[in-house]
Amino acid sequence: MVIADEGELVRSSRKGDLGAFNTLVQVYQRQVYNLCLRMLGSAAAEDAAQEAFITAYRRLDSFRGGSFRAWLLRIAANICCDELRRRRSRPAASLEAALEAGSPADVPSHLAGPEEEALRRELARHLQQGLATVPAEQRLAIILRDIHGLSYEELAEALGCSLGTVKSRIARGRARMREYLVARRELLPRRFRLKE
Amino acid sequence: MMLKALLQFRHRRFRRDLSVYVDDMLPERARRRLEAHLDSCQACRQELAELRSTVEALGSLPMAEVPRSFTLAAAPVAEVSPRPTARRLEFGLRLATATAAFVLALVVVGDFAGLPGGGEEEEEVRGELFSAAQGTPAAMEAAPVETPEPYGITDVPGISDVERLAPAVGADVSEEEPSEKEALEEAEVEEEAEAGAAEAPAVAEEEEGGGLSREEAVRWLEVGLGASVGVLVVVWAFARFQRRIGNRP
């Protein structure tokens, strides 16, 4: 989602206009929250998203133009990586456990019927568990590419790396997800069942 | 055997390209080569189909609604992280100020200690110190008077003690941005002017052995160093104020 006067809102925010910044928050909060949700699980996503916006406001001076969305998602991604690092140093609170406890699989869909809804939840649960097995950098890349729909260029900006690295991370992340889903093909809804 | 290894190598390379191909981001030539390979390679076709299903499945994940609004009720305290160059400048100025103050203290102490003796006597004492390594208490105290010399304001008039310190500060100073450099150089020039003015009579006195007395030279040196310290402190305070160093949340 791109708003026409985003640049103006960023400029006003830099001058201390909190209202302008909050307009940007409203535009991007769903994307930031969903990134945190996929990376950390629902238990920690809320705090991480709030921290991302506070950090973004404080560091507005470091925004050098380009895609504001990519810049914002980069801040959120860094916060998620910091949280994952903290968790690694505390084995009791492992990522897997956090994802199991607060899986975002129960995101309601208003369009589906009960059966479709059940299948969708099942798929979402498998995908979330599969994502948890992918290394953080590759997971970030495939979440931002395949769920958030960022272009390769935006991804390079959001991840702070070259296009080549972006392609490689996406390819390796997808390959891991493919292996995970192939091993559970019979559990997936028919529409997404991987061919034998 | 060789052919089989070559085919395996090509196959691995094509597999690597599959992900970019799914996103339609493969350059035209590479895309045509991959499609030709796909026609003849069942394993790659299978992998491509699985990869497409994986991407489609990931894309089907719904975006959750936010549990609450993340708008900020009040502006958080701005985070002003000083740039590394600003920190280096601050460090350089602090070091230069400390050095100038230290040298000034040495000169003043040496001056008071050396006052009872005349200029010629001190010269003799210094000679003894260097040649026979024997020193009276007076000579030991007088020695610090000469310590500024290694910082060498005397022999090369164009170089101040800040520049002399540059090797000690090392890469830090050399990495300064042009604007920072200018500021530092400005400080150096100011100090150099002061120090140069103070040192010129001393050189004259030492070389010609007459004209200005040693006491007067030391006075000039003290005045010069004092002014240098003052200038450096002002520059340092100005830089701090300008760059808001230290104004951290």
Q: Would you mind describing this structure in some detail?
A:
- The complex is a heterodimer of chains A (196) and B (249).
- In chain A, helix 2 runs antiparallel to helix 3 (42-58) and helix 2 crosses helix 4.
- Chain A is built from nine helices and no strands.
- Chain A is 70% helix and 0% strand.
- The model of chain A has no long low-confidence stretch (mean pLDDT 84).
- Chain A starts with 5 loop residues before the first helix and ends in a 14-residue tail after the last helix.
- Chain A has one domain (6-191): Orthogonal Bundle (Rna Polymerase Sigma Factor, Chain: A).
- With 196 residues, chain A is mainly α.
- Chain B is mainly alpha-helical.
- Chain B folds into two domains: 9-56, no CATH class; 84-243.
- In chain B, 71% of the residues lie in helices and 0% in strands.
- Chain B has ten helices and no strands.
- In chain B, helix 1 crosses helix 2 and helix 4 runs parallel beside helix 9 (178-208).
- Chains A and B meet through helix 2, helix 3, helix 6, helix 7 and helix 9 of A and helix 1 and helix 3 of B.
Query: Structural class of the helices, strands and pairings of chain A?
Result: mainly alpha
Any guess at the CATH architecture of chain A? Answer: Orthogonal Bundle
Report the β-strand fraction of chain A as a percent range: under 5%
Major sheet description of chain A: none
3D shape of chain A? globular
Order of helices and strands of chain B: HHHHHHHHHH
Q: Into which percent range does the helicity of residues of chain A fall?
A: 55-70%
Tell me the number of structural domains of chain B: 2
- The backbone outline of chain B, from C-alpha atoms, is elongated
Strand runs of chain B, count: 0
How many DSSP E strands of chain A? 0
Largest β-sheet summary of chain B? none
